[in-house]
Amino acid sequence: MKNILPRILWLIIGIFIISFLYSFFSNLPFLIAFVNSFFVMGLLLLMIGSFTFVVEKGFFNGIIYSIKRFRKSTQAGKFFSKYDNLDSTKPIHEEYLVKRTVSITQPFLIVGGLLTFISIVAAYYLA
């Protein structure tokens, strides 16, 4: 995560080109199709960035930890854990602290938020 500026610039250039090509071949007027495709791609990047942010911070690790903890606390869970390999990955306390890093989180959040905001402002002025 040393320098995210080139990734941001490449994402913006790529989305601009894709939106331009889509709006050129669309049946809608050029500007409306351009703003619509810009908005959809911005929201897509924002959703992907948000999902990777949630995964990075370990939200699902907490859910997995609580499920394993509940399973070990019940009588039936103790019995079934003897015969399957679901809990043989790592001990519960070690797996809970694992945090994954994804290098595309910040660029996707920044570009997605920026494109969504720009397309909303542009749609307001076009209407």
From TrEMBL:
Coiled-coil stretches, from where to where? none
Which keywords accompany this UniProt record?
A: Membrane, Transmembrane, Transmembrane helix
InterPro entries in the record, alphabetically? Answer: DUF3899
Q: Which ranges does the record mark as transmembrane?
A: 7-25, 31-55, 108-126
Q: Which residues form the DUF3899 domain?
A: 35-122
What's the protein here called?
DUF3899 domain-containing protein
From which organism does this entry originate? Answer: Bacillus spongiae
Q: What is the lineage of its organism?
A: Bacteria, Bacillati, Bacillota, Bacilli, Bacillales
